Amino acid sequence: MRFSEKLLEASGISVETLDLSEALGWVRAMKDSDEAVQKKLSLIGEYTSVTGIPQESLLKMAKLGVAIDRWVQQKHLSATAIQCWTALEEFYGVVPCTLMSMMSDALMPSACETDVAGLVGMFILQSASNKPAALLDWNNNYGMDPDKGVVFHCSNLPKSFFSHQKMDYQEIIAGTVGKENTVGTIVGRIAPGPFTYCGVSTDDLRGRITSYVGEGEFTDDVLDTFGGYGVIKIPHFQQLLQYICRNGLEHHVAATRARVAGSIVDALQTYLGWEVYHHQ
């Protein structure tokens, strides 16, 4: 995902970059028996069901997790955005989704597809709610109800978002890089309940950061699909979608399981001077 580092810096948000080759270089220097690797391996097994997952894949995840943790500590980072496909799958053989899910659930938000602007939305929501935030795709309409839609990711959603979840493989790219190289997603149904959403984008042409905020409900409507998914209900949802499309905003949106839209609008407008569309 593209973003303007200069516009973020003007709002006090600094971005540190790390090439995947460096991270994988650190990983290759680790032994399976290293204490940090074995501790991370144990934490992964405690976090989610790993039934049927190859031990080799779990060890790869653990080593990558140790590398990410060390870099976060070294740089004193508050959040991460990771290049989740397809280099990691092709040249390392796992997806980082479980690691990202674990970080987000521990209030260290982690966004996929290196979506730094989406990560900012996650951090804003987490700061307002003191609860984990997730990054979702606005996916498609649900049935004939204009106020309902489907949200989805592959996924790296925090465990606390789900009614049920487990570790699995990434179905979207498995056909390209091989199923055995895409193990590590967290999949399941998002539990019903209220949520607040926030989209952030850097508008380079106008030199501004723009955003939109609103509230809705995760519903218990029937949905049969893969990844991390749910059905949402938002009043005047079609108007919101029109706003997103007409303003060229990205398909990602951040969400947290709380009602905090009002406080976010005040903070972004009053203290940061950002452009905010409050969907009500």
Characterize the structure shown.
With 280 residues, this protein is α+β, with helices and mostly antiparallel strands. It has a single domain, classed as L-fucose Isomerase, Chain A, domain 3 (Alpha-Beta Barrel), CATH 3.20.14. It contains ten helices and eleven strands. The strands form two sheets. A six-stranded antiparallel barrel has the order 3-4-9-8-7-10. Strand 3 and strand 4 form a beta hairpin. Helix 3 crosses helix 4. The longest helix has 21 residues. The radius of gyration is 18 Å and the shape is globular. The two termini are 27 Å apart.
Structural class: alpha+beta
Helix content: 25-40%
Mean pLDDT: 97
Order of H and E elements:
HHHHEHHEHEEEHEEEEHEHE
Number of helices: 10
The value of Rg in angstroms is: 18 Å
Largest sheet: 6 strands, antiparallel, barrel
Distance between the termini: 27 Å
Strand order of the largest sheet: 3-4-9-8-7-10
> Regarding CATH, which class?
Alpha Beta
Q: Can you name the CATH architecture?
A: Alpha-Beta Barrel
Approximate shape: globular
* Overall structural domain count: 1
Instruction: List unreliable stretches of 5+ residues.
Output: none
Provide the CATH topology.
L-fucose Isomerase, Chain A, domain 3
Beta-strand percentage range:
25-35%
- Please provide the count of β strands: 11
